[in-house]
Amino acid sequence: MGFGIFELLKLVGALGFFIYGMKVMSDGIQKVAGSKMRSILSKMTSNRFLGITTGFLITALLQSSSATTVMIVSFVNAGLLSLVESIGVIMGANIGTTITAWLISLLGFKVQISAIALPIIAIGFPMMFSSKSNIKALAEVFIGFALLFMGLDELKHAVPNLKENPEFLSFLANYANMGILSTIIFIGVGTLLTLIVQSSSAAMALTLVMCYEGYIPFELAAAMVLGENIGTTITANLAAMVGNVHAKRAARAHFIFNIFGVIWMVFSFQFFITTIDSYMVTNMDLSPLNFDIYNPVAIPIGLSIFHTTFNILNVLFLVGFVPLISRIVIKIQPSKGEVDEEFHLEHIGTGLMQTTELSILEANKEVVKFGNIIAKLFGFIPELLKEKDDKKFRTLMARIRKYEDITDRMEVEIADYLAKASQGELSVEASVKVRSMISMINDMERIGDICYQMSISVERKSEQKAQFMPDPTTSLEEMIAEVTKALQVMNKNLNTNYSQVILTEADEVEIVINKLRNKLRKKYLEKIEKGEVKIQTAMIYNNLIHSLEKVGDHIFNISEAIVGDK
């Protein structure tokens, strides 16, 4: 039978079936465990060895090293993990991803799980209609597990019968006896295959099936497995291109770790393969290399041993160099987040995290940064009031305009990100937090607008050569100092666990600002009545007092939103 377009579509469809099952199962597990993962991770990554164990367990559970990497990146962004700790978890994820191969080797080729897949779906299907989100997520785990192995069964049938297409086998044979060059070529094939299917687990499944059916020899399948280790890091690096600086660093660390492992393995490849074969002959009476006594069971088990041993050894070799890897990736990918004159969302990229809860965690970090930018923007106002040099005055005006533009764009991008995140299933707590953050960024943007309007008022004062009275009772300095204090309280609250924030301090500062507004307005009205101040100057002064009071109101609104009162 030939292999035409229809057969190719069946193969692609089977591969899609397998990947979809893996995704459904992974998403379900993340929903079941996602809300608890933050506290678990913070406790289990106190040193790199615990981090490796954590990465292994999470990836073994989720069946996706990519999902684990994305989660770890989000925890680094949120400040729950350092980059060094995250590298340890990523190392563990590399070991955890080998569990997929063992599941397929021990169950997929021996036990016909596809035969009981429909009963498993029958158990999970009614659970999908539960009103409880955890039970619905558990249903996804069951259904995803069944689809995963149904997909694998279809994959086995969809792979072309290469024995009936000897021209393809002869094509492979041309590259099978070239020593180390053959190894490098098939590492490239494995890398390309992973890039095409966008999943190292799916590429591994395809490699196992092809080797199991005898289409490619064990050595070349092992080389493809090495390539799949590189391919999964390239996928992560491509995804990180639109991500933040932390995503890029984690992806670079993953790439450095895996590429170093493949390099040392290339030079010890033949010794490694022979050792695995000897071990299996001695302990299992199986041989993936000896085709005189053909036993297809040896193939997937041998590849699984190779995959697992390689990743464990690579971790053991590099675990002592984690701080060095961290320094290298920081040097390769420096953060531009401190360059405050440039608009830069540091903590959220264009893509969402794997779970809604993690996306909200990312957005919260941007809200904290937004608060710091607002404080810096307001700090330009007193500088502007005191500045006498015309050139420096113009520079300050330009910076205020630029910062006001930054606040506009930050509000839009954070709000868009939160809107996309809200399309997923939200817990009651997460839903409240999203509404609070939308309220906060709206108030922050309004503060930016008010600061810009204040700069226009100060500019008008400068053009008119108007002078406020030197009497300290009518000065703005005291009110500016109180608003600055309110901003400090606001940013302290933004950096605190929302459930622990109380409004007492913010309320006290807001009361002082309102009293000062009344006091300053009264004093100035008296001076107008006495003819001590020009009307134009009085209007500018009154606008500034009103603006400062409005800034204070918006700051208090933000603190109210933090505690959920707004």
Report the count of strand segments: 0
Strand content: under 5%
Estimate the helix proportion, in percent: over 70%
Gross geometry: elongated
Major beta sheet, specifics?
A: none
Put simply, the count of helices is 21
Which structural class do you get from the secondary structure elements? mainly alpha
Low-confidence stretches: 338-342
Distance between the termini: 69 Å
- The overall average pLDDT, rounded, is 77
H/E topology pattern: HHHHHHHHHHHHHHHHHHHHH
In the residues, how many domains can be counted? 2
Taking all Cα atoms into account, the compactness measure Rg is 31 Å
Map the helices and strands:
Elements: H1 5-44, H2 48-62, H3 65-77, H4 83-96, H5 98-108, H6 113-127, H7 133-158, H8 166-173, H9 180-197, H10 200-212, H11 218-240, H12 245-267, H13 269-284, H14 298-318, H15 322-332, H16 356-386, H17 390-421, H18 428-463, H19 477-494, H20 504-529, H21 535-563
Helix pairs in contact: 1-2, 1-7, 2-4, 3-4, 3-12, 3-16, 4-12, 4-14, 4-15, 5-10, 5-14, 6-7, 9-10, 9-11, 10-11, 10-14, 11-12, 11-14, 12-14, 12-15, 13-14, 16-17, 16-18, 16-19, 17-18, 18-21, 19-20, 19-21, 20-21
